[in-house]
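Exercise: predict the structure of this protein bound to pyridoxal-5'-phosphate.
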Amino acid sequence: MSFLPTVPPPLATPLAAILPSEPLLLMGAGPVPIPHAVASANGVVINHLGDTMNQVVLGLKDMAAYAFQTSSPRVLGVAGPASASMEMAIANLAWPGRRVLALVCGVFSHRLAEMALGVGADVTTVTSGALQPIRPEQVEQALAQGQFDLVTVVQGETSCGVRTGELEAIARLVQAHGALLIVDAVCTLSTTALQMDAWGIDVCVTGGQKGLSSIPGVSLIAFSEAAWTVVETRPRPMPHWCLDAARAWRFWGEHAYHYTAPVPGILALYEALRLIAEETLEARFERHARSSAALQAALQVMGLGLLVPEPDRLHSVVAVCMPEGADIPAIRRTMVEGFNVEIAGAFGLDIVRIGQMGEQCRPSNLFRVLYALGASCRLHGVPLDVAGGMAQLEQELTVFPSGSNPTTDLGIAPLVDLGPDPLPA
Ligand SMILES: Cc1ncc(COP(=O)(O)O)c(C=O)c1O
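Solution:
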């Protein structure tokens, strides 16, 4: 064989020389730390078709339906980021001539509107006030202006830390109007209440790397029967072959070939969903609420403000105001280099964002991120009461109502013996 390469081999740096020697604690807006069971599953490759995979797919769909709180069988995985599941929702249900009402309060809700425009739909946008979600009154008003086929909304707007708290009321209005509702629950699913069937949500999407504490790259989508009927009867061919939900159903419903499924990611997602089913949604919501509230209280005692007032504050990604003049990139760099902890910056705002999704809501991670942030701020000349903040966090996390169990309530590994409840009844 005579092969004369015209491109020489590049300098191939081993991954170990690129990655930090100790993994960073990911306390940003996602991806989040993954449990050991998820990481192990992610290292396994099996045939993507066949009995073993069928069993995995069936189990995964059951557990995903539990997370979405739906009895619809039309639950599918998507090979791709959460944006791919958003795009699957839009591309299957919108086309030229379809009227879409996009409820926009930040980057990701705007992304849904962009996607709808991209497939040629007729898009009307309702924009919220600054740092506010869309209110039901705004939806009612907008729906009265015309007949819409689809409405899009984000439950947790990670970009600015705003939560659509009145999602159920919005869903009812959309249902009464006769439109289908698409909900982005990318950062919120399994961290806070969402009831796809009971609230009347038609399509719900999520990613793996946030509330579910799985890996990025395999996402989920669930369709109601009404939405699925549209998928099956759409009058024109799908512009995206991979994102064609009817084709994807071959794999997710009929165990046949669509494309080669992302096997390790599916196995990882299976384990992540299994851990959620084991914990139960109620316990998981409680753990998230308690953890995020403790973090928020401690941040405030330390001297930092929270960007979004209650009740519109998103708890799964907390937007934290940084004092004027604070060198945010330098502070975040010090957190990484000095403390091995990473938090997120923001989309053009003077804030940092701390994630409270899945494995991020563990006491050890809270103490680490709070100290890293406080100490790094101080190193860069921002005076904060770090000790006060840490003490507040300690107090918030160790005050248990009588009858509660600190081990299970906080999600501490059950082998750790914490001794008796510190607060006697
Ligand atoms: C609410 C929300 N929707 C959608 C996305 C997009 O997710 P991905 O980057 O996985 O496409 C994100 C990512 O941060 C998000 O927070």
